Amino acid sequence: MSVLPKRNTEELKTLKTLSVSNPKPYVFHVQLNRPDKYNAFTKQMWLEVKECFENLHINPDCRAIVLSGAGKHFTAGIDLTSMMMLGQELGEVEDVSRKGYVMEPLIKLYQDSVSALEVCQKPVIAAVHSACIGAGVDFITAADIRYSTKDAWFQVKEVDIGMAADVGSLQRFPKVIGSQSLARELCFTGRKFLSDEAVKCGLVSRVFENQEELLQGALELAELIASKSPIAVQATKNNMVYSLDHTNQEGLDNIRNVNKLYLQSEDFLTAVAAQLTKGEKPNFSKL
To answer: Which of 85, 127, 174, 282 could disulfide-link to 68, CB 3.0 to 4.6 Å?
Structure first.
């Protein structure tokens, strides 16, 4: 039987477009780190986000993740210069079908990069300040929890550059806000919307005065989540994600099959004993 390798943080120090730190026990802070380019996404950045979250997915020292952006904005979305370079590469291929063969694995890579946040078993908290454009909306809707600053604004901008969003917004955004009408309005028009509308429609759950308070709030939440049983938290995330596109009964079947094992875990006994005795907070061993 094969066993997944355990990952360590040393591998994350080599990333060029992300800054990864471990500010609290079992909490990792991932920052988009191209501030001079407003954290616009190049191919390297897409690759590194995927690599980072795949690492944290199986890293025993990680139980919760905060995702934020360095500099003036959370992200300006896709890097248009890199898109122009891609256009030049496609120009060298004459046949339209063969152009498609070039594009398909690239789109799949970008989709998998965004989905890495959702697939990651550790809860991901997106902390958004200022602009969150295009690909930024793709990424935050793949996160579990979204906080923002008061000055944050959001835009599903792909229609403005002549394309349909293809890495997650059209699939996740309507489910996140729970309104097909509003989701379609925002995706058809590329209209910019502010934090007050974002919290009202459910895209974000809390709004903070400034970036400092935002990061403090996000890290405090991550620390609280990380203090819980990792088995309980990760099973909860997995089932909630699974239940998004399955029937209620299928979701119940899934959690029943999981809990027939997890209810025998040492975490369950440890947590129950702590609740009964009202003693010190329980400590849970690494997975």
So the answer is: 127
| String of DSSP letters for 154-191 | EE--GGGGT----SSHHHHHHHHH--HHHHHHHHHH--
Q: Give 134-155 as a 3 state SS string.
A: CHHHHHHHHCCEEEEECCCEEE
DSSP assignment letter at 124: E
CA 227 to chain centre: 20
- Average pLDDT of span 277-285: 86
Label residue 2 by pLDDT band (50, 70, 90): very low
The H-assigned helical ranges of 58-95 are 80-91
Are 107 and 43 in contact, with CB atoms under 8 Å apart? no
Q: Do 58 and 7 form a contact (C-beta atoms < 8 A)?
A: yes
SS3 percent helix, strand, coil of the chain, rounded to 5, is: 55, 15, 30
- Is 147 in contact with 124 (CB distance < 8 Å)? no
